[in-house]
Amino acid sequence: MKVVTSLAAMQEQAWNWSEGNVIGFVPTMGFLHEGHLSLVRQARANCDLVVVSIFVNPSQFGPQEDLSTYPRDIDNDLRLLKDEQADIVFFPSATEMYASPYHSWVNVEGLSEVLCGKSRPGHFRGVATVVLKLVNLVNPNYMYMGEKDFQQVVVLQAMLRDLNFRCRIVPCPIVREQDGLAKSSRNVYLKGENRQIALCLSEALALVQRLYASGEKEVARLLEEASRHVKARGGRIDYIKLVNPHTLQDETLATNSTRMIMAVYVGTTRLIDNAAMKA
Ligand code: AMP
Fold it and tell me: CA–CA distance from 41 to each of 47, 87, 90, 237, 260 (Å)?
């Protein structure tokens, strides 16, 4: 496994490889857990060469967000990735990624302003920009991304399609703790009783799926039950929505593919989760 930090070295390596090889790419912000590793495993199983990036992207964090305290452990990440037989770990610096003077940004209109984009203005502009840059440096055929960040997948699929990239996203299922909590680097922030309260997200998803399966299709009713559960458990709702999985627009009557998607504060930690009404 090779660790590459320079942008020029990454690009040269990738373009040398691209002839005759299928390149799989897993972009991450590090502090890796089983959710990330599931993506690396799928890339390893399906591609000739696997590149994993570790980059805590400053441009996707708002001014009041946790950029400086975002958890990091590069030594452990490298150990885990070696075990998974990644070929390259791309670990660029922010100063090189956003070399001054920096002018260029990507906006994926219509999909970036709703849901998490509403609570985190500019977040998806940062995400789209960094992913476009990474795709240009790594030149992958496939990019493995978790459905944990469902809106991110939808936004980036639109970007790749609109801008005529050959790269395709392979959406991968959410990896959860045994009790249902979606794995996340931010779960380290959950101390004491907050770890239990955090279960309100996966519980609300399961509750709504059960109500849907028993015949309730009215979105207003389903949302009422979900909100009631989250509040009773002690979560503070940022948003809970039932949306069309392609347009991310609100639905009024749920169908099997309707996506329930939510962001909830547990203490000061903002957690996200989502699920389709029926798998
Ligand atoms: P992050 O490091 O949080 O930017 O995540 C990097 C990639 O890992 C993204 O595609 C995430 O959706 C994915 N990911 C994070 N947590 C999970 C999880 N619990 N299950 C599956 N994929 C995940």
Answer: 10, 12, 17, 34, 27
* pLDDT per residue as tens digits for the range 216-265: 999 999 999 999 999 999 999 999 999 999 999 999 999 999 999 999 99
Instruction: Choose which residue among 39, 42, 80, 84 to substitute to test ligand 1 binding: the one with the highest number of ligand atoms within 8 A of its C-beta.
Output: 39
One-letter amino acid of 6: S
Q: What are phi and psi of 213, to 5 degrees?
A: -65, -30
Mean pLDDT of all residues in 184-200: 96
Buried b (16+ CB within 10 A) or exposed e, 244-268: ebeebeebeebeeebbbbbbbebbe
Spatial separation of the C-alpha atoms in residues 223 and 209, rounded to whole Å: 11
- Is residue 36 flagged as an active site residue? yes
Q: What is the pTM of this model?
A: 0.98
